[in-house]
Structures are given as C-alpha cells and as structure tokens.
Queue: 4 jobs
Job 1
Amino acid sequence: MASATQTAAAELVCFNEGCRARYAITEVLYNCPQCGGLIEAGYARFDADPDMLKSRFRDRRTSNAPLDQSGVWRYRELFPFLDDYRHVVTLREGNTPLLDGPIAAKYGGLERITFKHQGFNPTGSFKDNGMTCGASQARRLGMKRVACVSTGNTSASMAAYAAAAGLEALIFLPHGNISFGKLAQALEYGAKTLQVEANFDQILALVRVLAERLGIYLLNSMNPFRIEGQKAIMFEMLDQLDWRVPDWVVLPGGNLGNTSAFGKGLREAKAAGLIDKLPRLAVIQAEGSAPFYDYWAAGARGAFHPVTKPETLATAIRIGDPVSWPKALHEVRTSNGTVEKVSEQEIADAKAQIGLCGIGCEPASAATLAGIRKLTASGVIDRGADVVAVLTGNLLKDPDYIYRYHTGQLEAPGGVKIQPTFGNKALVVPNDPDKIAKLLAVAD
Ligand code: F0G
C-alpha cells in the first residue's frame, strides 16, 4: 500500500503539438485557454524499474486494501496526478476478465480472439475506469456538483461515483435515445436527470456553457482525468497477458475518449519500459455515425467534418462530432492502426455471435467483432493475429435491442429491417408434457 502522499510532478498540458502550454494539475480545464486545444495530464520523467513495478502490480492483487483492489488504482504509479490518495472514490472498478471466444473468432475470420470485457465493471461499462479518477479529482478540488452529457453509460457511471463520493450528480441525456437500462441506473443512483430534446453533440455544447456559468465540474471524456483512468484498461490487459503485447487492440469509437486513453496508456507503458512495442489500434464506428472513419478514409487531412444527424441503434456511439478526434488520430497513427465502419446488420449479427460464446455485450461493443470480420476479409488483420477486442458494455444494458433482434422486430434508423440471422425465438408451449416432449423430439 502506498503512502497517503506522493510527490511525482504532474501538470496539465495542451495536447496541441504547436502549443504544449502547461498548467497546474489543480486547474479546472477541458481546453487550452491559449489555443483551444485538448488538455491532457503530463508527468515528470519516469524512472522506476519496470520489473519491480510489474511485481508490485501483481502483489497488489492479493491485497485487501481498497486502492489495490481497484483494477485502476492498482496501477497508480502510471497516472500519479493525486497528491493524496484519501481523495480516491473507488467501487473496485476494473478487474475485468480476458475471455476466449472461439465461435466469435471463427465468425471474425480469426484463429483466436480474446475479449477484454469491460461490462464486468461495477456499473457495467468501461466508464467506471475513468470515472473513479474523475470523481477523485472532483473531490480533491473540493467540487460539490458534477455533470455530464451522455449516451447512457457515462451517466450511469457518474451517478454511481458521485453518490459514493457524496457529490451531487447532474445528468443530461438525449431524450428518447438512450437505452432504458442506462436511464434506470442514473435514477437509482439518485442523479438529477434532465432529458434534453437534442442530440449528444448539441447537448455537450449546452452543458459546457452551463458548467462554466454554474461552476459545475464536467466529467465527460474531455476531462483529462477520465482519460487517465481509462488508460488502466490497457495496463490491466497487459498485466493479464503477462506483459505480452497483442498485435491488435480493437475498440468501438464514439466520442473517441477511449481511443485516446488506450493510445496514451500504451505509449506511456512503452516509455516506462513495461513493454517494448505497441499493439495496433483498430477503431470501429457505426456507419451512420462515422465521422472519424470518413476523415481517416479521406487521408486524415484538413478540416474534420462532423456528421450533423448521427444515427445508429448502437446508441452508445451515436455521436457525430467526437470531441477527442485529434487525440484519437494521433494514437491511431502512432500505433500504425486503422479505422473501419460497420452496418447496423453487421453489428447485430456480430453481437449475437458474441452471445453464442456465453459472453454477450451491448450493441456498441459488438462493432468490434463486426469490424474484425471486415478487416480480416480485406487482409488488414491476419487470420493468425493475436487480437484483443474490448467489449465496452454489459449485455443487460440494452435488453430491448436483443429481444427485438431475436424476434425479427429490430429496425435500423430509416425503417430498414434487421434480419435475425442468428435469431433465437422463445417458444410458447401448452402445459402438457407429451406435447413439449414431442416438440423437443425427446425420445421417451
Ligand atoms: N461503447 C460504449 C458501451 C459506450 O458507452 C461508449 C461511449 C463507447 C463505446 C464509445 O467510447 O466515446 O470513448 O469513443 N459512451 C459515452 C457515454 C459517449 O456517454 O456513455 P468513446
């Protein structure tokens, strides 16, 4: 267990290459006051012995100390922004498994696939990894109120961490476009919940104005401390692989905070000597909400064009103007990665295949396998590659989608019917053993 106080120099830094302005780690900043660029946390040069660190991380798995039990704070040397660990609010986030999915591997055109399932988090998504850091920083700053706009998972997570931290939670949601499961979580955790008649991108602009006016701490992913926590998804993955570096890490892209976090974490792990190469990042977007894919496919030069009316049934990634695209672009380029897009039908079928592995996930997460299937078909990913797909949210986040798919009632935006390719309908049967036995063709 580390001491309560730790001294590594941490500061906020403008991400913009041409600016790199530096600010105190305790400033409330989401964009650089000088150039408007994104903000990130930066640390003094790291000189701990990598083998010592690896064994310390491993030892902490047997500890009962709350900080060590967290699959985020276990790796705290790699994001030393707090000056006092008594500010930490943890629900024992992270600790998510690596799972084999042979059926999904075959479907994706791979010999093997490993899922890193973030749906095993306390509120059922990867947002908890970031939220523990964001909420802890809010406490350190003495904030009373925190806010976010969300497609559902950020709000569920923020509501839980705010409740655990004794902070007031204010949530803004696109009315009618988040799953019931996620909305229900926010209500149960006691958050003040506002459903706005606008889309995610429009509400984010609104909330930024309100946060400034009302002095509320914003916990969307342009908050640099969210990104620090989400880096730990990669640290935990590497630790679970005994620090073997996979060829590819595949993840869905919405607001692109997670892509930014994974890339930063991996680069920093390499700089710290924990790994000697980077995995390639593959970011998958839903066809109707794919501005990052469009930008990438057009050569990633010049102006970035948001999608003004983003659409997808994978509501978690229904985002047309992703805030973190400059960071994400840097990470995809640095890792020699790629960006792909997938259709509604492809997402739905890939999701059913992940279900057939006994694993399951929410729609946005299944974009990973759908993307892998395309990328193996086009030869970008080799059949024999070592691939980790990050499933970002739990199956139970959106049961309505699942029921509709399996019963042939799922419709893509615009009314196009999704085929239940791997549909599995419940059968209604009479209370009669003979008839049921006959139906099941069970020999008596
Ligand atoms: N998968 C799930 C399940 C998500 O909830 C999100 C984002 C993403 C993928 C995309 O991650 O934005 O970092 O690229 N959900 C946010 C929310 C936007 O409000 O819950 P990203």
Job 2
Amino acid sequence: MNSKDIYILGIESSCDDTAAAVIHNGTVLSNVVATQEIHQEYGGVVPELASRAHQQNIVPVVHQALHKANIDKKQLSAIAFTRGPGLMGSLLVGTSFAKSLAFGLDIPLIDVNHMQAHILAHFIKAEGQIAPNFPFLAMTISGGHTQIVKVTDYFEMEVIGQTLDDAVGEAFDKSAKILGLPYPGGPLIDKYAQQGNPKAFKFPKPKVGPLDFSFSGLKTSVLYFVEKEINQNPSFIQENMEDICASLQYTIVSYLMGKLKNAVKQTGITEVAIGGGVSANSGIRKALQQAQTNKGWKTHIPKFEYCTDNAAMIAMVGELKFKHQLYAKRNVTAQARMELGKS
Ligand code: KG4
Ligand code: ZN
C-alpha cells in the first residue's frame, strides 16, 4: 500500500437508512445502503423503530462495504461518521459503532455534518461529474432541510436562505399522504408527475423573503383542494393522480428555481449545485439543466446514488477532513441539531 493511499470508511445513520461506504482517494469503492421498509406501514419514520433497525443493520452493512471494497479493516486510514443533524436514537447507533471501531483499530475518528456531506458529495470522483469551483451556491433539499448555502471553501459555508417551516421533502411526503400514497411519497409523486399535465391545477406559492422558503401552506392547500373535489367526485384522486402530481411538482420546482434565481442575482455567483434526497426529482434536475443552457449557469446535479442518504458522501467529507487532520475528540457525541458553518 502506498503511504499516499487514503482509505476512509464512512458510516451514516441519521434517519432511516443504515449506510456504509469505502472511499479511496476520492473514488468510491463501495456504497451500501440498507433502507428500512418498516416505516412504510406508519406513513413516516418512527424514531424508535429506526434506531432498532440501525442496530440490526449496522454490522452487516459495514461488513458488506468492506467486502465489496475488497479491503481489510486494517487498511483503513480513518473512520468518518454522521454526527448530526438527525434523529438522536439513530445517530447514536452510528456514532457509538464508529467510535468503538476507530478505537479498536487505533485510527482517527472523524465527525461529519450530514448537510455538509450532501454538498461535498459533489467532490466524489465519478464518470461525467465535474467538481464545482469555489465559490458556488448549493441548494440542499431533503426530508429535513431546505437551504441555500454559499460555499466558499470545503469547510466554509454560509446559509443564506432556508425554510421557515417544513422542508421540501416533507411537502412532497405529506402531500403524497393526502393522496393516499405510501411513505416516502416524493419518488411516487415524481413518477406520476411524468405522465401528467403540470398546468392542470394551480397551487399557491407562499410569499416569504426572497431567499426564504415556506411549505406548510402548500400541504394545507392540497388538503382543502382534494377534500373539495372529492365531495363532488369520490374517485377524483384516482382519476386525476397524474395531473395532481404533475401540477404539485411543477409548483414546487418553479418555487425552488425562483429562489435559486434570487440567490444568483443577490450573490453574483452563477455556479450552482443541488444536493439531498429531493435532488433525485426529475423536475428539478430538468429545470437545472435548462438553466445551464438558458441562463449560462454552471450547474452540478449529483448522481442518483449520492442524492438520497448514503455513506459515500460521509466518507468523502472524511477524506477531506483527514487531509486537514480535522479529527474528532475521543469524547465526541451525537448531536441532533447542527448548524452549517466553519468546521
Ligand atoms: O436526503 P434524504 O434521503 O434524507 C434526509 O436527509 O431527509 O431525503 C429524503 C427525502 C424524502 O422526503 C423523499 O420523499 C425525497 O427526499 N425524495 C424525493 C425524490 N426522491 C427522494 N422527492 C421528490 N422526488 C424524488 N424523486
Ligand atoms: Zn439527507
């Protein structure tokens, strides 16, 4: 093994995906995700069940990640783990596991901010992917967050806009629930939307500050709209699922793009990246591609496997922090709420 070879094991357990990945000098050798199906029955993530499932999954998932990467744990340079933000019980499983493994192997332990990882996932080396140049704007859109971040350097990030209430992923999932779709509903809305007319129905866009977001009103308007229509036609949802989803997705995507345009105008930065689960959405991906052609922005769209929660992004931040010797203290603890900033 060359001494310049860096092998990082990343561990992610912030919500309902147990994930482990190995990265070698920026290239992903393995990326294993165990998605917890149990939450589907409950229409949302049940924290207690999530942490229990993490406990069951973590050993086999880490084992599989090392096996697929074809390396022995003794070759690892460091172990990176999601410290937060996320569900406390879930975070604790990954944190304690990462700690014990790093202590056992006597290698550095590196704590990672999950939202920073969604942004720095763009630095993973992959075919057809070009890493962003600093400074760039990152819009992080997930089940727990909706932010616009000015990224000046790997560890220098400033949140310049964010949601005042629900996250955009929640807006997708809660609207889907109203339509009778199982959790998580975002990907299903996307699927139906592709067959529907985006102008069939009109939903209001909440008016807040130019870089702020608000989504709680949207789900209420979807609820009122559906209730009113069902009163007249009990099969309204079934007969109009594609058009409802297309109209909803159109409203959300144009709202997100409007905010990005405001951010570009305000900062003068035209290099734009998206990250987080909702960046898997076909509508936002298409809109961003169009902005590259029509507005001359330089846009960065993550590969599908690095959009939703994964450990490759955690290992990527681990590698960047390892190079700067930014290690965690031995008494580091999980943190449910964490801000993005200089770390
Ligand atoms: O980043 P992520 O996996 O977990 C969090 O950190 O929250 O994001 C999950 C969110 C869920 O709300 C899910 O419905 C949404 O991402 N999502 C989508 C799509 N794929 C995942 N929303 C809309 N369209 C999609 N294709
Ligand atoms: Zn996430």
Job 3
Amino acid sequence: MKKEHSLSKRLFTVLMVFSLLFSLAIGIIITVASFSTYEKAAAQSLSTEATDIANSLQGKTAEDRLSQLQDLPTGLVRITYVGEDGTVLYDSEVGASELGNHSNRAEIQDARRDGEAVVERQSETMHEDSLYAAVALDDGSVIRASEERRSLASFIGEMAPTIALVTVIVVVVAYILARVLSRRIVKPMNSVDLAHPSGESPYSEIQPLMDRIEQQRKELVKSNDELRRAANLRREFTANVSHEMKSPLQVIGGYAELMSNGMVSEEDVPKFANLILTEAESMRLLVDDVLTLSHLDEHSRVGDDSPDVDLYDVAASAVSRLDSKAGDRNLYISGVHDDAVVKGNAQLLEQMVYNLVDNAVRYTNPDGRIRVRLGRDGDYAVLSVDDDGVGIPEEYRERVFERFFRVDESRSRETGGTGLGLAIVKHSAEDHGGTVVAEESEWGGASLVVRIPLAESAR
Ligand code: ADP
C-alpha cells in the first residue's frame, strides 16, 4: 500500500519535538541555575551564622561559651561546639555525650587548618544533603553550624508536575499550530490555476513543480495537436484514395456493362477490353502506392543497424527496369562513386529512384534526355535525376511532394500517374535521414535531388 504523507502530521511531529526539546532545555537551565543560587545562598548564610557565633564566643571562658550557646534560640540551624581534642562539648539537637570524637570530620580539620570551612555531605536518604560551616576559635576549639539542605533530585522531583503541565500544553499547542499551519500552507497551493501554472506561484519552492506542470501541459497540447493533424491527414488521404479509385472503377463498370449488354460490336471488343485493362492497371498502381505509403507511415525510420546499401546498384537496377519504358529517350547514369554506400532499405531506395526516373520518362518528350547522377557532398550521397522535359514551375516545387498533388492533372493520368510517386520519394528520403528537393535542370526540365547521409564506413 502506498504510504500517505500528511503535512499536518509532519508539522505536528516537528513542532512537538522542537517545543519539547526547547522546554526541556529551558527547564534544565532554570533548575540548575536556581539550584546553584540556592546552594550558594545557603552556604553563605550558614557560614555567616557560624562566624557570628564564633566571634561572639571569642575570648570567653569555657563555661561562658557553653551557657551562651545554650541560650541561643533554636532554629533550623544546628549548632555544634567541638573542643580542641575533638570531643563534642555542645550540640543544639543531640546530647553532646552521645556524639563521638569529631576531630576526624572534614569540616573540623579544614577549619582548624584554614580558620573556617564549608563542607557538604550527602545523607543516606538522597533527598537531603547536609551542609556544614565550621569556624575555629583562638583556642583550637571549633564552632560548627549545619543545616539539612534539599538535594538536586528533590528539587527536580518538585518540578515534575510543572514539567507534566508544560508537556501537555506543548502537545496541545503543537497540535493546533500544525493543523492551522498546514491548512494555511496548503490553501494557496490548492488555489493555483493548473491550466495556467506559469503565473505567480504561491511559494518560490514550488516554482520548479509549476514549471514542470506547465511544460507537460504544453507537451500535451502539442502532442494533441499532432495527433489531431495526423488524424486529419489520414482522413483526407482516405477520402482522396476513394476518390481516385472511383473513376477507374466507373470506367471499368461502364465498359463491362456495355459489353455484357451486347452493345459493343465484335470488332470493338478488343479495344474495350484494352481500355478496361488500362484502368485496372492504373488501379493496381494506385493500390501499390497506397500500400507503400501506409507501410512507410507505420514503420519507424531506418537506423544505424540497417544494412549497407550501395546506391549505385540500386540506381542501376531501377534504371534497367525502366529501360524499355524509356524508349528512344537518352537515359544514362553518370558520375558514379563506387562507395556511395548508405544505411537503409534497398527495396525502398530502389522504389525511390524508380519513381524519380519514371516521372522523368513520363514528363519528357520521346526523344528527350534523362540523366541519373550519383555523387558525394561531404557526408552525403547525392543522387539527382535530371531531364529536359516540361519541368516543374517554381511555385509548385514544394507542393509536388504532397499526396495527390499534380501540376498537370491530365498528363499525370494519361501517363499512369497516381499522384503519390513524389510523396513516397520524400517519405523514403526522410526515413533515411535525408532530403529531396525539386529544382530546374540545366536543360530547362526538372531536376530532383536526393541527399542521404553516407554510411559511417563510406565517409
Ligand atoms: P504523378 O503520379 O502524378 O506523377 P508524383 O507525385 O510523382 O505524381 O508527382 C507529382 C507531380 O509533380 C506530377 O503530377 C507532375 O506534375 C510533377 N512532376 C513530377 N516529376 C516531374 C518531372 N520530372 N517533370 C515535370 N513534372 C514533374
């Protein structure tokens, strides 16, 4: 199944993770900062208290000291008085005799050495620590003030409800923000006019997407146009073919009817049969050309993997097939290169030359001249068929390659033209990667010039 990506889900996750991390970081910073402030203040006040008491005891006798200590108001702070030998002389919370020798306690040793000391010890319960501030008196005895102080763990524990509340708020806010934001982000995208996405895009980030949509839309429009044009051409072609078929069929039908009705005299029968044959032949030629063209329409271009074809062989073969039809005309091949080899379809190429020479024969006088020339021009083989016939007027030199276009309708029909010969030549030349143009020959007739890229090996 395709995984659905939801923008609001993603935003929710990102916002939530970000806010949680953010509030966690802030929480840690605040906790640590306030804990250390609290810690410092507690140590400071304890040490001040110890110093004050020590100052007030300084220079007094042992009894005075004890009675003064006993008179101190009992508060949160525990006061211990340790003699110079380490015995506890007074403690504000526990009987002094219950406490052992204190001379190995860190705060006592430190105070004796440095005058005063502050030491912290962790209690077993973990929730509270003990803080000791000790000050040495001039006779080596020590006054110690101590206090239970909250540990970091209990500090954090106290924050737990607040943390939970903040978490809930973060989740709710992230959820609402994600919904609102995703809706706001998506709304302008949905209002984009996809038919004309080239206009303003709501975000620069999606401009590439819009460009791609626009490009694809253009391509679609283009290929749609091409399809429509191709369909039109096909429709037009079919209509033309049916039209071209109609007249020989009518002629054949008409003559056959006359003959079957006995309206043709015995001696005229061969003449009528001949007329029918001629029309049948012109229909056969038309069908052949139509089949060739539709074959060309359906099959893709000639490629590099096509076989080598020597254009000279092809031309020679086409010319020899037309030799008898050429009659007295002076038909010859000249300027032959033995390596005018191209990649392609020999049969198609021969049909191409055949059509060109056939046209030359049909549009020249019986004593005319026809020359098939084969040469090279750079990477191209150039094949031209020149004649000294009627020629093609300049304004029709492009249109003669259109299907069923004829300059002189009656001459074309009289000589058995289908109107498709040059269309086949053009199609075939283009399928071989080449071109064909109609020009005027040096004798004033027509010159049809085909250029086809030479095979790599022949260059
Ligand atoms: P068609 O079967 O009518 O000859 P083509 O497609 O071969 O059809 O040629 C199209 C038209 O071009 C012809 O009808 C003719 O008018 C003109 N044409 C072609 N070849 C020649 C040529 N060698 N000399 C004069 N006109 C030509």
Job 4
Amino acid sequence: MDVILKSYDPLNNEKLGEVHVSSPDEIKNIVTQAYKASSNWYGLGLDGRLAFIEKAWSGAEPHIQELAQLMSREMGKDIQRAGGETSGTVHGGPYIAGEAKKALCPRSAGRGTTIEYRPLGVAAVISPWNYPLAMANNLIVPALMAGNTVVFKPSEETPLVADLFVEILNRVLPPNVLQIIHGCGEQGKILVESQVNLIAFTGSQAVGKEIMARASKDLKRLIMELGGNDPMIVLEDADINAAARFAVASAFENAGQMCISTERIYVDEKIADHFESEVTKIASQYRTGPWNMPGVNIGPIVNKAQHEKVVQHIKDAEIKGANILLGGSDQVLPYIQPTVITGMTTDMIMENDETFGPVVAISRFKTIDEAVSRANNSCYGLGAVIFGKKAAKKTATRMEAGMVGINQGVGGGGDAPWVGAKQSGFGFHGSLDGHRQFAQVRVISG
Ligand code: NAD
C-alpha cells in the first residue's frame, strides 16, 4: 500500500503537496544502492568530488527563489529569512566542500607515517525542520567530500523543499550518491538500524539519545547536533540597549525556533528595571504574520503540538508567579505573540527545558557566581552569551557551553566548528576537525 506524507502550510493548514513514505524494503534497497555507488564516488578523488559538488550546487542557483518560497510555505519563516537560508545553502555548499578538501588531504605525521582520511561508507543524514536546507547541507557536503554516499531523511514537516533541493542536485551528481527517503521517526529508526556506517543527525536531544541507543548495537559512527537552552548573562556594566536588542532578536529569531536562541536571561539586579523596560519596548515592535507580508518578523509556529508546548511553558511560568510584561499564555493558533516574562525561577519549565518559541524569559541575580551557577545548571550546553565589560571575558570562560559569545551572538566566524557541550551534542561539524569526523582516519607507516 502506498503510504503518503502530506505537507501543510502552518498558516492555514492548506495542503501544499505530498510525498511517498519510504517502506522498510525501499530503505534497505536505497542503502544497498548507496553502497554500490560508493566505490566509484570515492574513486573520483577529492578534486573530482569537489568538481561535482561545485557544479551540482551552482545548478541550484536559478532555483533559490523557488526553494525559498517553498520553505516559507512549508514551515512559516518569512521570505527574507528563507531567501537568506536558501542562498547560504546553495553558495555555502561549494565553500564547505573546499574547506573539507583541505581537511581531508592526506598529511604526513613525520617519521615516514602518513595520515589518510577514507570514507566510512554510507552516511545517513537526518535533519530537523527549523532550518530545513541549511542543517542538512552542513552534514551532506562534508559527508560527500569524505567519499561517503548519503541517504538523507528530512523532517516530516518539510519534505517538499528537501525533495526539490535533492532533485536539483541530482541533475548533476552521479546516480545514488545522494538519495532521499521520506517519513517520520519510524523511517528514521529503520534508517539508523540499516547497514549505514555513519549517522549525522541534527535535532532534539531526546531523539539523539534514541539514535545513540540504536546505533550502539553496531557501534555506528555518530555526529549529533542537538537541542539547547541557551543562557545569557547581562552584567552590571553592560550596554543595556545593545543587550536588550540582542536578547529580543535572539529569542524571537525564526519565531524562537532556533537551537541557539536565547532561552534564559540572568540580569544583574542593579540594572534589571532598565533592561526589562528596554526589552519590553523593543519586543513590542515585533509583528507576527504570514511569510509574505512586509514588516513581519515572527511567522507562524510550525505546528499545533509545538504551539501547545510553548503555551504550556508560558502557562507554567504564570502559575508559578512570573510577571508577564508582554504577551502571555492566551495565544491563538498559529502564532505566539511576542512574550516577555520576568521573575523566572528555577522550578519553571522554561528555566530547565527548551521552549522553542518567541519568549524572552528573565531572572535577576545578585552576584555573578549566582548567575553562572544558574546558567550552567542544565544538561544542555550549546551556546551561552555574556553582555558586559570588566568581568565579561572571565565570566565567559566559566560557561559550560560549546560556543560562547561576548557582547554578540555565538557561532563566531571563519571556519569555526559548530559544537555543543554536555548533552547538546556528540561530535560536531565545521572546521578541519569537524570535516574529519565524516571520515575514517587511517595511519600508514613505512
Ligand atoms: P526531532 O529530533 O524531533 O526530529 C529531527 C529528525 O529526526 C526528523 O527528521 C525526524 O523525523 C527524525 N526522527 C524522529 N525520531 C527519530 C528516531 N527515533 N530515529 C531516527 N530519526 C528520528 O527535531 P525537530 O523537532 O525536527 O527539530 C527541533 C530540534 O532540533 C530542537 O531541539 C533544536 O534545538 C534542534 N536543533 C539543533 C541544532 C544544532 O545545531 N544543535 C540545529 C537545529 C535544530
């Protein structure tokens, strides 16, 4: 029986299209085909693979607008953001591939020893819906450059944009080097349990743990970029306006549906009144609305379940005594109106878990030690941000996070890795070290 996955516009639930859900036999067959294609793909060498990637990704350039519109309609982000993500994906592919080539060239370790980077075999790339092309691209490109073939499973929320992107790339790539399967968690599980050698995953912490448990049977290689609950500390001598602008922009980016979105803010009580009123003033200028309406900067929440989760977090904070300066739990689908909460306490869900909605949640501190201790009291460790002057650098060194921003957001520049600490990640991508994780390291002596 043909099982269908339908894709809906989160704005009005209009059906946008559908894809065929891959059956267990089809997934097995696709992985087998990927294996068969792998030796020829590896045989092209780094330069041959780079040339294919450059040609395939540049073939997507004329489709940037089409892809961006589909992305906007499938997951709700406004067209400027979708355009930026799509263009970054299409132009970033060859850039990542070029960097990966540098990382994967054989190199001498001295004393007649050479280090080589060989393919692992078939890589499963499993991705989320919030940045449906960028997140997948960050894993697909280095996996291919390392000589692996790829079986890609996009999120069930964004199958159409993923399908179109892969179809465009496959006009150039050799057959079965990059294949796509569709479905939900069930198809992800089947892929993880298949004969793939590497699982490169971006998604939630809970699913990351499930994947790790399943992959352990064959000790499959894992690269996992997982959820976060990023703290921000605002010190006494911070530029209050700059801190407030950053706090709101980061908390509301992509309707708050961003892994490194600022989820918890700890502000020195000496400047808290001023900071909170600046935040509220800035937040009240944000507008919810559809992807193609000018001036909109918060789109619809991706689906009803996610909307309910955000409302539940806000309601929990209200019940436990938070002050609502803007918005609140009285929200109507598909939007979450910009919300600002103060008086966040350690027992609230939003202090402890990822909310993933346009909510600024603030708590006051008396000492920097207290702020650092609350910021670090989390199983997550993706990003952390410090605003301030005198003690900012020292405070930054105390943060238990993979990426720390001082008076700016995280994720720096150049070819820095994208990396989470604690339970926000396992392995990482980007940078020479990151690209090498997609390969089997081999040491040849003599
Ligand atoms: P999710 O974990 O629910 O799903 C991600 C993907 O995994 C989807 O394709 C899904 O179908 C698949 N999947 C679900 N169950 C599976 C299973 N048991 N085995 C294999 N695959 C399975 O995440 P989501 O809701 O799509 O995305 C949001 C989450 O992703 C947030 O937690 C966010 O912080 C995180 N994220 C992290 C980063 C990062 O770089 N660290 C970037 C973007 C998103």
